Amino acid sequence: MPAPGGESREELYTNWVAWTTTNLGGNRTLVEAAANAAADTAFRGDGLEAATNAAREAWFANAQANGSSWRPSFWKLLLSNPFVWALPALLLVIVVSAFQRPSSGVGLFALALLPIALIFVIWQVGSDALLSLGGTVAPGSLVNVTKSYAPRGSPPSYLADYAFAFQGRQCTTSHMYYMEDSVRQDVLILFYPRFPGFAKVLPELLNPEST
User: Fold this and answer.
1) What was the pLDDT predicted at 145?
2) Contacts of 49 (CB under 8 A, 6+ apart)
3) Distance CA 63, CA 32 (A)
4) Domain boundary assignment for the chain
5) Distance from first CA to last CA of the chain, Å, rounded?
6) CA 114, CA 122: separation in Å to the nearest integer?
7) What is the gyration radius of the CA atoms in the chain, in angstroms?
8) Is this structure's pTM higher than 0.85?
9) Predicted local distance difference test score (pLDDT) of residue 30
């Protein structure tokens, strides 16, 4: 019996092999697992989004099992990490303030923050290096959002908690958003298998479909 769209199971599988190879990678074992999961989902008539999610979940589940997981490169992780840009921003403020007369208190404040920013950036660089070399990617789902307000009437921030599965365990990680509309329901999470709590939510531009 054909799928609701008129395609046979074999035709769906062929189409999803092409999609998976283009968007997730060319590992034959992972492509077959993802394409089969997507074709089964599409054949039941669950829709394109459900089939895409099934492909991704099967891909990453099998990647975890055989250690062939896709993950972003170090430079992609680093350049997409907003916290890494704190140090250049502070240095820019300090340089600009040095040419102001009289001297700005903002420049002195930035100078005081410089050692803290340096330590924080070194931590971020080390984390991205570790995850780029040995990290594993898994799909994550939103489980909770905590809204908090900064002092002096600043806009609120939203701390989103995401759950993901690894080797039969439920793990969680968090991600901060600064606009309510930007909170994502489904994400990809990059984590270190030996310590699954050491994890980060990947920005959308680093998802396999986007790279």
Assistant:
1) 94
2) none
3) 12
4) 9-66, 82-130, 135-210
5) 36
6) 12
7) 22
8) no
9) 83
CATH number of 135-210: 2.40.50
Q: Which of 64, 58, 60 is nearest to 36 (CA)?
A: 58
- Report phi then psi at 150, rounded to 5: -80, 160
**Closest C-alpha to 80, from 209, 200, 182:** 200
pLDDT of residue 4: 57
Greatest alpha-carbon span in the chain:
80
Residue 122 CB partners (closer than 8 Å, separation 6+): none
More confident residue, 25 or 85: 85
Overall average pLDDT of the 196-210 stretch: 77
The CA distance from 54 to 44, in Å, is 12
pLDDT of residue 210 exceeding 70, the answer is: no
Full DSSP string of the chain: ---TTS--HHHHHHHHHHHHHHHT---HHHHHHHHHHHHHHHHTT--HHHHHHHHHHHHHHHHHHHT------HHHHHHT-GGGGHHHHHHHHHHHHHTSSSPPHHHHHHHHHHHHHHHHHHHHHHHHHHHHHH-EEEEEEEEEEEEE--STTPPPEEEEEEEEEETTEEEEEEEEESSGGG--SEEEEEEETTEEEEEEEPPGGGSGGG-
Q: With b meaning 16 or more CB within 10 Å and e meaning fewer, what string describes 86-110?
A: bbeebeebbeebeeeeeebeebeeb
Query: The tokens 């995401």 sit on which residue?
Result: 162
